[in-house]
């Protein structure tokens, strides 16, 4: 009889403990929260990443502030940005002039839940076309040679001493 009574007390204590823990424990998934950006109203009460109990967040900022609910990564998985391949380079903006050309790509998947942000979507590069729709350019574009003011002035050479001049 004593064994039955101690085991029933143990079961009763365990039941009360589980009730208290389950009623206090809330998660992002249970609350249905996965908020974009920094959202101070996106909160729950429960266990945090650091195994402390209290207010926890279900927004993207919680990853950097380390106050996410313990199930944030599972309930709100990070989705990184996905972009398309680069387009072909455009032609030069204007023929017969030094100008720029462009290429771009588009966002296929926006980042979610603190996923990797999108890279640059447009690139520019210098270019020059030596012809137009009417034929060759009248003013040919010749690459410039940029030099310093001292171009062509040789440095003075220093005398190299003979082995007979070296003493010791």
In short:
By secondary structure, this protein is α+β, with helices and mostly antiparallel strands.
Strand content: 15-25%
Q: Residue ranges: pLDDT <50 for 5 or more in a row?
A: 1-24
Q: How many strands in all?
A: 8
Helix percent reads: 10-25%
Helix and strand run = HHEEHHEEEEEE
Distance between the termini: 110 Å
- Rounded average pLDDT: 75
Tally of separate helices: 4
Strand order of the largest sheet: 1-2
Shape: flat
The major sheet is characterized as:
2 strands, antiparallel
Calculate Rg over CA atoms: 36 Å
Class based on secondary structure composition and strand pairing: alpha+beta
Pfam family, one: TSP1_spondin
InterPro entries: SBSPO (IPR039942), Somatomedin_B-like_dom_sf (IPR036024), Somatomedin_B_dom (IPR001212), TSP1_rpt (IPR000884), TSP1_rpt_sf (IPR036383), TSP1_spondin_dom (IPR044004)
Signal peptide: 1-26
Keywords: Disulfide bond, Glycoprotein, Signal
Describe this protein's structure.
The protein has 168 residues and is of the alpha+beta class. The strands form four sheets. Strands 1-2 form a two-stranded antiparallel sheet. The chain is built from four helices and eight strands, in the order ααββααββββββ. Helices cover 21% and strands 20% of the residues. Keywords: Disulfide bond, Glycoprotein, Signal. Pfam families: Somatomedin_B, TSP1_spondin. This is Somatomedin-B and thrombospondin type-1 domain-containing protein. Residues 30-80 form the SMB domain. InterPro entries: SBSPO, Somatomedin_B-like_dom_sf, Somatomedin_B_dom, TSP1_rpt, TSP1_rpt_sf, TSP1_spondin_dom.
């Amino acid at each position: 009889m004593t064994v039955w009574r101690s085991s029933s007390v143990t079961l009763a204590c365990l039941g009360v403990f589980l009730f208290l823990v389950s009623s206090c424990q809330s998660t992002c998934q249970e609350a249905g929260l996965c908020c974009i950006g920094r959202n101070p109203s996106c909160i729950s009460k429960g266990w945090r990443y650091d195994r402390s109990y209290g207010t926890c967040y279900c927004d993207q900022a919680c990853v950097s502030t380390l106050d996410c609910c313990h199930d944030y990564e599972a309930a709100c998985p990070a989705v990184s940005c996905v972009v398309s391949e680069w387009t072909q380079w455009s032609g030069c903006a204007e023929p017969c002039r030094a100008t720029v050309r462009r290429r771009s790509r588009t966002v296929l998947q926006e980042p979610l839940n603190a996923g990797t942000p999108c890279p640059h979507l447009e690139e520019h590069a210098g270019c020059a076309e030596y012809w137009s729709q009417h034929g060759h350019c009248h003013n040919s574009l010749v690459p410039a040679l940029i030099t310093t003011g001292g171009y062509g002035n040789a440095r003075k050479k220093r005398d190299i001493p003979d082995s007979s001049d070296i003493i010791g």
